[in-house]
TrEMBL record:
Protein name: Flagellar hook-associated protein 1
Protein family (similarity comment): Belongs to the flagella basal body rod proteins family.
One MF term in the entry's GO annotations: structural molecule activity
Residue intervals of the Flagellar basal body rod protein N-terminal domain: 8-37
Entries under SUPFAM superfamilies matching the protein: Phase 1 flagellin (SSF64518)
Pfam families in the cross-refs: Flg_bb_rod, Flg_bbr_C, FlgK_D1
NCBIfam families: flgK_ends (TIGR02492)
Location of the Flagellar basal-body/hook protein C-terminal domain: 560-598
Tagged with keyword Coiled coil: yes
C-alpha cells in the first residue's frame, strides 16, 4: 500500500543499494594490484512492486547478486597459449645453455682446438726430432680432449637438471591440483548456501592459469560453479580427471621415476623405481615395478619423460585407473607415461632428446678422431693385430680414461684392456695417453714406425722423418663417415672393414682413403653447431612470439576483468550521489511525517 511509510521504505532500499555498490567499488579499488583479481559489480534490480488502486507501485531497488566480470573464452585462449609458451620458454632456456657449453665460435671452442691439434702435427712433421714441437702436440691434444670431456660432462649435467625440473614440476602440479580441488569444494559449498564466492573463483582461476603453463588442460564448468579439470593429452588413460566437481569421482595425480634399470635376474625386464607424487623426502614413498617387453626406444623415452599417471595417493595406475602394487610385474602396454604435447613439462622432455643428440654427435666426433689418429699413429687397422708385426698397438695415442691405468712413472700397465676399451671411447672419457704426455718422444712420426712397437726401435728412418705426423695432420682434409661411428662403426677394426662398407688403410698405415659419403671432421662438427644455432634461434623466436601473444591476450582479459581506477572513481561519485539522494528522500519523508504527526495536533 502506498503512503509515506512505503516511500520511506523505498528510500531505505535505495540507501542500502547505494551502500552495497559503494562497498563493491571499494573492494575493487582495494584489489587494483591483486594478481588474478576480477572486477566485481553489483547487479541491481527493482523490488517486487505493490498493488495499488491505480495499479502496481514500485517498492524500490535491491542488489540481486555481486558478479565477477569475466570472459571464459579469453580464459580458454590464455590457457591454451600459456601451455605453448611454457614449452617454448624451457626450450629457449635450455638450448641457450647448450650454446654456452659449446661456446662457438671462440678461440677456446672445440673447433678452434681441433684446428690447433692438426696444426701441431703439421709443425711436428717439419721438425719431428724437436721435443718442443712434440710437447706442443701433446698439450694441444690434451686441451682438445679436455674440451670434449668438459662439453660432454656439462651436457650430462644439463640433462640431469632438466630431469630435476621435471621432478619439481611433478610436485608443483600435484600441489596445484590439491589446492584447486580444495577451492572447488569450498566454492560449491558457498554456492549451495546461496552465496557467490567471487574471490574464491578468482583464486581457482589463477591456479588454473599457472597449471596451464605446465601442460595443456581442459576446464569444464559444472553445477554450483564447480569445475572439472582434465589434461588435454591424456594418452590412453580412461579416467583422466585431475579435479572433479563430483565427490564420488576418482581423480588422477602424477608420480616421478627416479631410475630405470635392466633387471639382472629377468630377461627383457626393466626395473622402474618411482616416488609417489614426486616426493623423494621420504623413502616410504619409494615404489618399484617391473616392466617387460619395453623396446630400446621406449626405455630411452621413459628415461627422458619420467612422469607416470597415478591415483590420488600417488600409486601408479593402469589405463583403467587400477593401481599397480609395489614390486608388481606388468606389460609395457600397461605402463601409463604422461607425455603432454605442450607446456613446461613437454619442453623439459623434448629438450632432453636434443641434449642427448648433441652429446651423441660429440661421441661420434671423439670416436672418429680417436680411431683414425690411433690407426695412423700405430699403422694398425686393428689395435690387437694377431697376424701382424708388431702384434698390438703398444702406445695408443688416444685412450679411454675410464679404463687406462698407469704405474708411478705413467707407463700404461693394462695395454690389452685399454685397446679393447678403445671401442668405448666417448667425448666424456677420451684423453691422450699419460705415457705420451710423460714422454713426448714416444709419439710416432716416422714412415716405418708401423713396423715397430716403439718409435725408439726404428733405425730405418732418419730422425727428421715426419711423414706419419704429416699423415695425421692431413686427416683434417680426409672425408670420414663420422655419422656411422657408434652405429655401424663400433671399433677401429670396423672402420677399416671393407665388407661392412669401411675405408682402407695403406702406405705403411699412413693413408686413410676418403669416403665419398663421409665428411671432414671440422665440417661435421660445424654442421652440428650450425644446427644448434638454428634450433636455439627458432626456440628464441617462438618464445618471444608466444610471450607477445600471451601478453596481448592477458591485456584483452585485463581490459574486461581488470580494475580501472578512473572507472571506479566515476562509479564512486555516481553511487555517492545516489546515496545522498536516497538519504535526502528519507530526510524529506521524516519532515512529512513530522507534519502529519505533530502538525495535526496544532
Amino acid at each position: 500500500m502506498s503512503g509515506l511509510f512505503s516511500t520511506f521504505n523505498i528510500g531505505r532500499s535505495g540507501l542500502n543499494t547505494a551502500q552495497t555498490t559503494i562497498d563493491v567499488t571499494s573492494h575493487n579499488v582495494a584489489n587494483v594490484n591483486t594478481e588474478g583479481y576480477s572486477r566485481q559489480r553489483a547487479e541491481i534490480i527493482t523490488s517486487r512492486p505493490a498493488n495499488a488502486t491505480v495499479g502496481q507501485v514500485g517498492t524500490g531497488s535491491q542488489v540481486q547478486a555481486i558478479e565477477r566480470v569475466r570472459d571464459s573464452f579469453l580464459d580458454y585462449q590464455v590457457r591454451g597459449e600459456s601451455s605453448a609458451q611454457g614449452q617454448a620458454d624451457v626450450r629457449n632456456d635450455m638450448l641457450y645453455q647448450v650454446e654456452n657449453i659449446f661456446n662457438e665460435p671462440s678461440d677456446t671452442g672445440i673447433s678452434s682446438l681441433m684446428g690447433k691439434f692438426f696444426d701441431g702435427f703439421q709443425e711436428l712433421s717439419k721438425q719431428s726430432q724437436n721435443s718442443n714441437a712434440r710437447t706442443v702436440v701433446a698439450q694441444q691434444t690434451l686441451a682438445l680432449t679436455d674440451a670434449l670431456n668438459h662439453a660432454a660432462t656439462k651436457l650430462d649435467e644439463l640433462k640431469s637438471n632438466a630431469q630435476m625440473l621435471l621432478k619439481a614440476n611433478v610436485t608443483d602440479v600435484n600441489s596445484m591440483l590439491d589446492q584447486i580441488n580444495s577451492l572447488n569444494k569450498e566454492i560449491m559449498s558457498v554456492e549451495t548456501a546461496g552465496q557467490t564466492p567471487n574471490d574464491l573463483m578468482d583464486n581457482r582461476d589463477k591456479l588454473l592459469d599457472e597449471l596451464s603453463y605446465k601442460f595443456g588442460i581442459k576446464v569444464e564448468s559444472a553445477v554450483f560453479q564447480g569445475a572439472d579439470v582434465k589434461a588435454t593429452d591424456a594418452g590412453g588413460m580412461k579416467s583422466a580427471n585431475l579435479v572433479s566437481s563430483s565427490p564420488n569421482t576418482d581423480v588422477a595425480r602424477f608420480s616421478y621415476i627416479s631410475s630405470i634399470e635392466e633387471d639382472p635376474n629377468s630377461l627383457n625386464t626393466q626395473v622402474i623405481t618411482y616416488y609417489k607424487l614426486g616426493d623423494m623426502s621420504n623413502e616410504k614413498n619409494k615404489q618399484i615395478i617391473r616392466v617387460t617387453g619395453l623396446s630400446a626406444e621406449e626405455i630411452q623415452k621413459i628415461s627422458e619423460t619420467r612422469v607416470l599417471w597415478a591415483d590420488e595417493s600417488g600409486q601408479v595406475t593402469k589405463a583403467d585407473g587400477y593401481p599397480i602394487k609395489d614390486n608388481d610385474i606388468i606389460l609395457a602396454s600397461e605402463l601409463m607415461v604422461f607425455t603432454p604435447k605442450s607446456g613446461e613439462i613437454s619442453g623439459n622432455i623434448s629438450v632432453q632428446a636434443d641434449i642427448e643428440n648433441y652429446n651423441d654427435q660429440l661421441d661420434k666426433l671423439a670416436m672418429s678422431i680417436a680411431f683414425s689418429v690411433n690407426a695412423i699413429h700405430s699403422g694398425l687397422a686393428n689395435p690387437i693385430n694377431t697376424g701382424g708385426d708388431p702384434e698390438i698397438d703398444n702406445v695408443p695415442f688416444f685412450v679411454n680414461s675410464d679404463i687406462a691405468q698407469y704405474d708411478s712413472n705413467n707407463n700404461l700397465i693394462n695395454v690389452l684392456e685399454t685397446l679393447n676399451g678403445e671401442s668405448g671411447i666417448s667425448a666424456k672419457n677420451i684423453t691422450i695417453s699419460k705415457e705420451i704426455l710423460e714422454d713426448v718422444m714416444k709419439i710416432k712420426t716416422k714412415t716405418h714406425d708401423s713396423d715397430y712397437g716403439y718409435t725408439s726401435e726404428n733405425e730405418v728412418d732418419g730422425e727428421g722423418d715426419g711423414a706419419r705426423a704429416l699423415a695425421i695432420a692431413q686427416l683434417r682434409d680426409t672425408q670420414l663417415k663420422v655419422q656411422s661411428f657408434g652405429v655401424t662403426i663400433l671399433s677401429r677394426s670396423d672402420m677399416f672393414n671393407t665388407s661392412k662398407g669401411g675405408t682402407t688403410l695403406s702406405n705403411h698405415g699412413m693413408d686413410i682413403a676418403s669416403d665419398t659419403s663421409g665428411m671432414q671432421l671440422d665440417s661435421y662438427y660445424m654442421d652440428q653447431i650450425d644446427k644448434l644455432g638454428i634450433q636455439a634461434q627458432e626456440a628464441s623466436r617462438i618464445s618471444e612470439n608466444q610471450e607477445t601473444l600471451v601478453g596481448q591476450l592477458e591485456n584483452n582479459r585485463e581490459s574486461v576483468s581488470g580494475v580501472s581506477l578512473d572507472e571506479e572513481m566515476a562509479n564512486l561519485i555516481q553511487f555517492q550521489h545516489a546515496y545522498s539522494a536516497n538519504a535526502k528522500i528519507i530526510s524529506t519523508i521524516d519532515e512529512l511525517l513530522d507534519v502529519v504527526i505533530n502538525g495535526l495536533k496544532r
